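Renewal narrative, Specific Aim 1. Our central claim is that a sequence can be written position by position from structural information alone. The example that follows is taken directly from our test logs and has not been curated for this report. It begins with the structure tokens describing the chain, in the order in which they were read.
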């Protein structure tokens, strides 16, 4: 009897160059711990929203913006209700910083950069 791989959900994360360097150091398989002023990790549920944040926030504040895509086990994500952070397509998950190690353990595959923006 063969077991099927777990169902996954695609998430996106807009990020700046500093966070992306830490992801690279982690072998593209995990997100780095949050800083004390970052109590929540915010992956988003659609690519368009991630692109908007990367362009409007990361490029302005960090000189570059990146959009990453990654898969997380769907069953695990069910503990985090989808948050509507504005319009109907502005959807996020709010993962408490203390859950990030467990969240990372449920990433399937690697974190990929799918867009890069510079001024």
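The sequence written for that structure reads:
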């Amino acid at each position: 009897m063969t077991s099927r791989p777990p169902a996954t959900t695609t998430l996106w994360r807009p990020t700046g160059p500093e966070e992306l360097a830490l992801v690279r150091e982690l072998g593209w398989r995990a997100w780095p711990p949050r800083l004390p002023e970052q109590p929540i990790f915010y992956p988003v549920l659609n690519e368009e929203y991630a692109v908007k944040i990367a362009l409007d926030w990361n490029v302005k504040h960090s000189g570059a913006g990146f959009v990453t895509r990654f898969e997380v086990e769907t069953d695990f994500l069910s503990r985090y209700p989808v948050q509507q952070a504005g319009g109907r397509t502005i959807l996020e998950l709010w993962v408490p910083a203390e859950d990030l190690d467990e969240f990372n353990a449920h990433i399937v595959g690697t974190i990929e950069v799918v867009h890069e923006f510079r001024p």
